[in-house]
Amino acid sequence: MSKKVINAALLGLGTVGTGVYKVLRQQRDEMEQKIGAVVEIKKILVRNLKKAAAKIDDPSVLTNNWKEIVEDDSIDLVIEVMGGIEPARTWILEAFQAGKHVVTANKDLVASYGSELLDSAAEYRRDFLFEASVAGGIPIIRPLKQCLAGNHISEVMGIVNGTTNFILTKMTQEGMEFAEALALATKLGYAEADPTADIQGLDAGRKMAIMASIAFNSRVTFQDVSTEGITQISSKDIRYAKELGCVIKLLGVARNTDTGIEVRVQPMLIPDTHPLATVNDSFNAVFVHGDAVDDAMFYGRGAGELPTASAIVGDVFDIVRNILADATGRIGCTCYKQLPIKDPDDMESRFFLRLHVDDRPGVLASIASVLGNNNVSIAQMIQKQKDGDLAEIVVVTSGVREGDFNDAMLIIEGMNVVHKVSSVIRVYGE
Amino acid sequence: MSKKVINAALLGLGTVGTGVYKVLRQQRDEMEQKIGAVVEIKKILVRNLKKAAAKIDDPSVLTNNWKEIVEDDSIDLVIEVMGGIEPARTWILEAFQAGKHVVTANKDLVASYGSELLDSAAEYRRDFLFEASVAGGIPIIRPLKQCLAGNHISEVMGIVNGTTNFILTKMTQEGMEFAEALALATKLGYAEADPTADIQGLDAGRKMAIMASIAFNSRVTFQDVSTEGITQISSKDIRYAKELGCVIKLLGVARNTDTGIEVRVQPMLIPDTHPLATVNDSFNAVFVHGDAVDDAMFYGRGAGELPTASAIVGDVFDIVRNILADATGRIGCTCYKQLPIKDPDDMESRFFLRLHVDDRPGVLASIASVLGNNNVSIAQMIQKQKDGDLAEIVVVTSGVREGDFNDAMLIIEGMNVVHKVSSVIRVYGE
Description:
Number of helices of chain A: 15
Oligomer: homodimer
């Protein structure tokens, strides 16, 4: 009996590309029994042929010419692990046109152009899968699209960036300041040379856009996500959070409310009894709340060579099964609604607020009155130790409209008795 | 455009059946956009027509005659939520023969007859899905078969029985004894009138057999699982475990080792820093270790009307998508290996051992020597407080062959100085 072979091309041979190459090799002996065919990497597109040759068994598969791949009719599927918007976007569109299926790990691309790419895939009845673009090795897209399809999902939230979670863990467990923890993350390879996308919450924002789109069946793009990074968090904030029974995590929170979808990535205080509070180091975890399943959580490695490759190869195997069943394009875009995106001013949040103020009678009352006049109700107000001549006060609000809170803060920042607004951090929950 | 309808029949209208009915109704308005067709419950098989009529909108769909369902060619799929081996087994086989797809939540059946049923489904190219049979609403079977298909999975372990987890949580957090906690579980509806299958670990054993089969691609049946319940666990054991930095959980542990598959359900001490240690009350969680993904965890409600229905409706929607893509039977049985099952005596375990012995010199030494002579090495030996005239000692062993440990225990039980072997509990980990 002749062996059924599915030919694939790999675009990129960096960390993730190398991982995919390795995992496919690890599966070589059982693929045929497991999925009915053998996946062979026929071409690998790289920039530097010489450098790439050192990484693989058979350098003859290397090319630096996209045409050699897209024009090769024996190649059934393309695995895009280059990253970046272009040329990835154009090449994926060309791949669909040429009748090829595509697997990608490219969150930047899916978060901004997912709709265009899924439409194109549907037009040519090809598969376009991107499990690896969210939370690395953790299965989350297929569970949302299939296992939990019987739910109206009202919330998806979690820790979806390993770099910032590593930094916050070090700040919490070892009392480091942000700069020191970032330096350690860089040294250990958890942070990239330019860490902006991670520490500013952009990377997490892209993942939240993708998950919100799938969970709520309505397109959410990266532009719709409110993002705030962790660069302003101090070890003092973390200590005060601890006194309140909380830890500080960079949380992605997507909610489907009656007045629209809200998606945000912000550092937040979360009770230390919440399962996410113990998700530490570079681990990721995603919480899902649905009307049938109630709470479910998915936990694992959000990045890394082999965990990311695990998700990619899962997608590749699914496409092979679709090809063999003649069922490609079986599950396409599931964004059949057009729900409004809520104005960030209309989102409701609780806030942790730390201020340095004049240490004299009446100051607390005047701040409380500004908050009250702007519909910001106070859940807790604590006078902390003196800081030189100044008093340090901490305010925790109830759930308030962000626009109202911002109005109040404009006034508070301008008050003579207020020397410094030292921290404004959201608090997760109602 | 005419609406595409897929007709389903529900076998059983107990807790889970009612849940499926509700969830399908909750999804009615969006099903067509989501999956391309509307699922309608055309028949519901019940024993008591009158009692069932009170539970649903349209009692005309009720029947107590299986023939009316199996002989109705307009019914595409059967949802079996009656439980028990017969007549469920025979009817599912007849459903395949009649060209119908089947979704079940029946772990007893899948754990013992999964192979026969999957073979029959394959013969007629029908789908047979059973996500709800393991860990209720938590997606685990589809993640194992698809998302993590690029892995060699070496271990699947977790808390897969909510009743016992509730009981152990109460014993741990509130110092209750087993009988008291069981009574509370019964009162709150977490335990059935006859709790045997739960508290003896049989229910968890069935789920572990199903998960091990899928994770290791080799058939494991319920008969292959070593099970032990939690009826012998005392609050004293839990207190001593706490002193050792551990909690006691009923764990299902399946391992694929070089010398065979081992699957067991046993109460075990697990370090309180392990993510499973904080899975409390009736929640379930499953840990998976794969060579690519590393550690992943799936957490949620392991039982209950709507969470279980969530898993069933996810399966139903998947079958609808297969029907529309003409790809039914797309993923069938994945047990393509025939790995040996390890003899329980050859499994390796660590043990926590509590003994009441004569309070005089030389006793510890004589027990230590019996253990040592049988290749049982001691990691920790602690003399606890006196209990009347007797001394209480606690021994924690290193990893030892269970057969060797049992030999040692036979001798220890026969020693004159040993008055009672009060507890023998395994310790998770190497």
